[in-house]
């Protein structure tokens, strides 16, 4: 598709377009299964109203607050928190720190969270937050002040709390930031609330977190890709020779939390990672890259640029290189109407949120390039966050106490979240 044939919509508009396309399928199911007292016409109107209510976010809050820098100067910080749906409470969604984040992006991500939670059957409404900062440009003390002040701004508007809105890590944030936010809430508006620490998930283990939360999204991606490739029907549909993950050639875009863990688990599963695309470089090795070597190099040099064990190539060209699976684990809108015709992968795995645009998705399907959707593939994080939230509310001492049948219940939920096959 030529670029001038289609004007790509904004991220939020793109999410709405995907949702509207799904509505007719959902309406049929609701019409058949939803309990309702009234005539068929009244039921149809009721269902239509439900679908309309999902088009926009219920609440969107914008924040502007000053932060004192280490040099004594002040800087205004801008941020947003969007709550897409209150059909169940609390709302759930990460906090993103990025210099290019905006309200449209936050609303889109909040919408996706609602649908993602529904896919894995965890009882949350979708939410998301964005703070317009580049975390690499601030000192540790400055980042702490930003996090704590943002937590207070959320609390003042009742946009954080164990039963109202529970944030989590996202791009640019992690365990450290969640610990600051939880501590701020627990020592201010949550003072005296025995459930205060459950106001956020993704915390350090010693502060109420759970083992494996950092790896959860990447591990879920591995399970999703493996489950897809283990189906002979799926492999035949997209032109792969044989089922199974062993020997499959994979290119990964993004080596952050999701991409690095997915890389590790896929390599351990027998896949060959021939390419890695990062923000400042791209690495290629036809014989396969090694995750452990890359992580050691990144830890020593602050990135993978200059890694001696692979050939540096053009970032865009590597994305268009032939492979069995292209994993998009960076940011949204990476495969668009402009570049979709150049994609040569047989399977697109959406590790990031919304990496494939509405028009590009249609073109990929026309070419029999299968897309494993983000709502399913990157839901491991919110699934484990749900476990953490429940443990906090039940005041379980981590590593020392487990409720009866807890392991069996957890495994049932995990199986449910990975039980997906293309029809």
TrEMBL record:
Organism domain of life = Eukaryota
UniProt-annotated catalytic positions: 128
- One Pfam family assigned to this protein is ELFV_dehydrog
* Keyword terms, alphabetized: Mitochondrion, NAD, Nucleotide-binding, Oxidoreductase
Gene Ontology CC: one annotated term: mitochondrion
Q: Where is this site: Important for catalysis?
A: 170
Give compartment(s): Mitochondrion
**Keyword flag Hydrolase:** no
Question: Which GO biological process categories is it annotated with?
Answer: L-glutamate catabolic process
Q: Does the keyword Membrane apply?
A: no
Q: What protein name is recorded for this chain?
A: Glutamate dehydrogenase
Q: Which organism is it from?
A: Echinococcus multilocularis
Q: What is the lineage of its organism?
A: Eukaryota, Metazoa, Spiralia, Lophotrochozoa, Platyhelminthes
């Amino acid at each position: 598709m030529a670029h001038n044939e289609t004007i790509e919509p904004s991220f939020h508009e793109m999410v709405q377009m995907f949702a509207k396309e799904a509505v007719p399928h959902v309406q049929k199911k609701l019409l058949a299964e939803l309990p309702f007292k009234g005539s068929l016409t009244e039921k149809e109107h009721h269902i239509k109203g439900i679908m309309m209510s999902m088009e926009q976010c219920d609440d969107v809050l914008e924040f502007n607050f000053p932060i004192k820098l280490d040099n004594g100067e002040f800087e205004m910080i801008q941020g947003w928190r969007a709550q897409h749906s209150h059909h169940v409470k609390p709302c759930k969604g990460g906090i993103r720190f990025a210099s290019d984040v905006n309200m449209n992006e936050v609303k889109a991500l909040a919408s996706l969270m609602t649908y993602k939670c529904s896919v894995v059957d965890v009882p949350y409404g979708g939410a998301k937050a964005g703070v317009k900062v580049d975390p690499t440009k601030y000192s540790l003390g400055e980042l702490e002040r930003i996090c704590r002040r943002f937590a207070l701004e959320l609390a003042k508007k009742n946009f954080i709390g164990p039963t109202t809105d529970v944030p989590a890590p996202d791009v640019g944030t992690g365990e450290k930031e969640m610990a600051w936010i939880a501590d701020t809430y627990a020592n201010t508006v949550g003072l005296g609330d025995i459930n205060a620490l459950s106001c956020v998930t993704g915390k350090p283990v010693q502060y109420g977190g759970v083992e494996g939360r950092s790896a959860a999204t990447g591990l879920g991606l591995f399970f999703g890709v493996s489950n897809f490739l283990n189906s002979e029907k799926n492999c035949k549909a997209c032109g792969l020779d044989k089922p199974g993950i062993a020997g499959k050639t994979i290119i990964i875009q993004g080596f952050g939390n999701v991409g690095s863990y997915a890389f590790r688990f896929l390599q351990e599963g027998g896949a060959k990672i021939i390419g890695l695309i990062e923000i400042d470089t791209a690495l290629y090795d036809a014989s396969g890259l090694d995750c452990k070597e890359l992580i050691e190099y990144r830890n020593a040099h602050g990135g993978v640029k200059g890694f001696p064990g692979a050939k540096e190539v053009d970032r865009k060209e590597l994305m268009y290189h032939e492979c069995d699976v292209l994993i998009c684990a960076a940011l949204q809108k990476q495969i668009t109407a402009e570049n979709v015709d150049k994609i040569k992968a047989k399977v697109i795995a959406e590790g990031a949120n919304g990496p494939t645009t509405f028009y590009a998705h249609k073109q990929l399907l026309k070419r029999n390039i299968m897309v494993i959707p983000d709502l399913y593939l990157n839901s491991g994080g919110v699934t484990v966050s749900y476990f953490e939230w429940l443990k906090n509310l039940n005041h379980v001492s981590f590593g020392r106490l487990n409720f009866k049948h807890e392991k069996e219940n957890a495994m049932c939920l995990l199986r449910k979240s990975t039980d997906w096959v293309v029809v």
